[in-house]
Specification:
Blueprint: H1 2-17, E1 23-27, E2 31-33, E3 38-44, E4 58-73, E5 78-91, E6 95-99, E7 115-120, H2 127-130, E8 140-145, E9 150-152, E10 157-165, E11 171-176, E12 191-193, E13 199-203, E14 206-218, E15 224-228, E16 232-237, E17 240-245, E18 249-254, E19 264-278, E20 287-298, E21 314-316, E22 321-329, E23 332-345, E24 356-362, E25 367-373, H3 400-435, H4 445-466, H5 470-484, H6 492-502, H7 504-522, H8 528-545
Parallel strand pairs: 2-7, 9-18, 19-24
Antiparallel strand pairs: 1-3, 3-5, 4-5, 6-7, 8-10, 10-14, 11-16, 12-14, 13-14, 15-18, 16-17, 19-20, 20-23, 21-23, 22-23, 24-25
Helix pairs in contact: 4-5, 4-8, 5-8, 6-7, 7-8
Length: 548
């Protein structure tokens, strides 16, 4: 038995020593800027003692890591042992520099490859971090970060709790997140904590490891200054505990510039808009589909359906639809909105449709942007243009003379028919007076439209309920509220204000529902029971809203 073990050990030793000796140098990026952190790694199958030649422009950082990797190929019986050592650092000058070679101290004749790194000046190295006030003699410190200090009301705000550390933390303890005033005026839509290194940064010539402690996405609904209280935590470095605290952070919420356009529908952010028209209006009863596509980032959940002003003889066939497909990112709601209108010709001769438009607020330019749909004639095929078109085609008679003759020949019959109809109406009126029986009034066109709308909105809610789509159910409630008040431009704030004066009890119940909807869906307290309860409340609220 001992002889067998000895033979196996001898064979493994032969396999191990049969490997070709090598030393290699690797770098995580071959292009960088002055002050940007890079990581250089030396690998070898000889030992972990492999000195490397660095250029004088390279400044070695505090982050180092060394170890070995070992594996056995059970098919061949060969074993592999690879030693590695990583060193962080940055370049203090721009230019092209050579790293390496690295040498093995055990076998000096074995040396590694060389790597050429191109270092650019960048936009003033680490300038975005030089404004950070670094506490002296601090191993680690915290900062509440925002992209800027002034935001418009409704604009998404990404607040980031960041930790800068000179040591690699092994754990985080006693976490106390930042808090902010007037929390009821904000909608926290996402919260995540991180306990891993995500970057390396230079601040005032010092190298720091950087990671997120907390980030929150907020949508302000009121103007004024908002102060975030400091966050605190304990950073663990092996057996050492390092207390970390940030300073408070104040941002200012600005009002949208006056005057607010009448066709503004609450949309704030950066968007690209296009649209298409499918079909044409040739004869009475024809329907075209107008589709508006809105893509970008901002507060898409606040968007309401723009109102179209149509001339007599043209009407909307059913209610417009608004479909949303967006996700929450550090820029806010990011994705797409699709709005569709079905427009019907109600008379034989198509009228001219005047330009339609709606406005949104562009945070990049700080101005309201007006998007206009210009009517123009077309060929009736589906199209999509920069200016966009509504296609209204006038039908032409092939033989106008025949049409005139037909009308002349039929005129005598029409006169006779009207005469007989008049006599019949007189007799009917006399008989009605004698019987004195009241007749039920025929429903007006407005009543029929309201009934049709009510059924359509209830059908939408039923579809959302079956799909258990709470987000769509909440949107339908405010769509119904907007229709009930016949508003051309409305936001949730405006709708709730009108409801407050019209039906205080319903206002309070809808406000309570909306608050619990945001908390359950975006605040992390979501569960299936809560979803079912809110869906049931949404259906009940819609019944009351549709009867306003």
């Amino acid at each position: 038995m001992k002889r067998k073990f000895a033979a196996i050990y001898f064979l493994l030793s032969l396999c191990t020593h049969a490997q070709k000796d090598y030393v290699t140098v690797e770098i995580d990026r071959k292009t960088c800027t002055v002050g940007e952190q890079v990581m250089i790694t030396v690998r070898s199958n000889i030992s972990n003692n492999n000195p490397i030649i660095y250029p004088p422009e390279f400044v070695q950082g505090n982050a180092t890591m060394s170890g070995l990797e070992q594996s056995i190929d059970y098919n061949s019986g060969k074993s592999k042992t690879i030693y590695y050592k990583s060193q962080s650092g940055y370049f203090k000058k721009a230019g092209k520099f050579t790293i390496g070679p690295a040498f093995s101290k055990k076998k000096p004749n074995v040396q590694s490859n060389k790597i050429t790194v191109e270092v650019g000046r960048g936009s003033s190295p680490s300038s975005s971090y030089n404004s950070i006030s670094v506490p002296q003699s601090k191993t680690a410190f915290g900062v509440i970060e925002t992209q800027k200090d002034r935001y418009y009301v409704g604009e998404p705000i990404h607040i980031n709790g960041a930790v800068y550390s000179k040591v690699y933390p092994t754990n985080l303890l006693d976490i106390a997140p930042f808090e902010f005033e007037n929390s009821s005026d904000f909608q926290p839509l996402d919260e995540k904590t991180y306990d891993q290194i995500i970057d390396k940064k230079m601040i005032n010539g010092q190298a720091y490891l950087y990671f997120n402690f907390l980030h929150t996405l907020l949508f302000p609904s009121k103007t004024g200054k908002i102060t975030f209280s400091p966050f605190r935590l304990v950073l663990v470095d092996n057996f050492e505990r390092i207390p970390v605290a940030s300073k408070p952070k104040t941002i200012e919420i600005l009002p949208l510039p006056a005057p607010t356009p009448n066709n503004y529908h609450g949309l704030i952010g950066e968007f690209s808009i296009s649209h298409s028209v499918d079909g044409s209006l040739l004869k009475k009863g024809d329907v075209i589909t107008l589709t508006i596509n809105i893509e970008g980032t901002g507060n898409m959940h606040e968007m309401t359906t723009p109102h179209l002003t149509l001339p007599k003889g043209v009407s909307l066939f059913g209610k417009p639809s608004l479909q949303s497909n967006f996700t929450l990112t550090d820029k806010g709601d990011e994705g797409k909105l699709v709005i569709q209108y079905f427009i019907r010709l109600d008379q034989s001769t198509p009228p001219i449709i005047s330009p339609q438009s709606f406005a949104y607020f562009d945070v990049k330019s700080g101005k309201f942007i007006n998007y206009t749909i210009d009517p123009m004639s077309g060929n009736g095929n589906a199209s999509q243009t920069k200016a966009s078109t509504l296609k209204v085609l006038r039908s032409k008679n092939k033989d106008s003379g025949d049409a005139i003759n037909s009308i002349s020949n039929a005129s005598q019959w029409i006169v006779a028919f009207i005469f007989l109809l008049g006599i019949g109406a007189i007799f009917w009126f006399i008989k009605r007076k004698k019987l004195q029986k009241p007749l039920t009034a025929k429903p007006t066109e407005k009543t029929i439209d309201n009934q049709r709308w009510r059924q359509q909105i209830l059908d939408k809610m039923n579809t959302a309920q079956h799909a258990k789509n709470l987000n769509e159910s909440e949107r339908i409630l405010f769509e119904a509220l907007s229709y009930s008040f016949k508003l051309k431009a409305s936001t949730k704030v405006e709708l709730m204000s009108l409801l407050y004066h019209k039906d205080l009890l319903l206002h309070n119940e809808l406000a309570s529902f909306n608050s619990r909807f945001n908390n359950s869906l975006y605040g992390g307290n979501f569960n299936e029971d809560t979803n079912e309860q809110l869906l049931s409340e949404a259906a009940s609220l819609l019944q009351r809203i549709s009867n306003l």
